[in-house]
Amino acid sequence: MILRYARRLRGYTQAESAATYGIEERTLRRWENREFDPKWNDVISLVEDVYLLNILEVIGKINDDNEHND
User: Fold this and answer.
1) Which of 10, 18, 26, 29 is the most exposed place for a label (fewest CB within 10 A)?
2) Which superkingdom (predicted)?
3) pLDDT at 10 over 80
4) CA 47, CA 1: separation in Å to the nearest integer?
5) Predicted local confidence at residue 37, as pLDDT
6) Residue ranges of the domains in the chain?
7) Is the pLDDT of residue 23 over 80?
8) Does domain 2-68 have CATH number 2.60.40?
9) How far is the CA of 24 from the CAs of 12, 39, 45, in angstroms?
């Protein structure tokens, strides 16, 4: 959820994100679809180094969105 949310927030495609991070697009797709669990370091690196977002702020925004949708 964090990866997809951050990627969409920045307007990246899965292909762009994966290429920038140096992984295959299908790997990112599997992470986003929760078919495989990425290492926490990969989540942080993608959010902070590729999407240039603060991981804690992204988690906060997700929590805020979930509270408004409940």
Assistant:
1) 26
2) Bacteria
3) yes
4) 12
5) 96
6) 2-68
7) yes
8) no
9) 15, 15, 15
Fill in the amino acid letter for 17: S
pTM of the model: 0.87
Residue 59, amino acid: I
Residue 28's identity, in one-letter code, is: L
Amino acid letter, residue 61: K
**38: alpha, beta or left, given left = phi > 0 and alpha = psi -120 to 50?**
beta
Q: How far is CA 70 from the centre of its chain?
A: 22
- Between 8-17, 18-27, 40-49, 57-66, the lowest mean confidence (pLDDT) is in 57-66
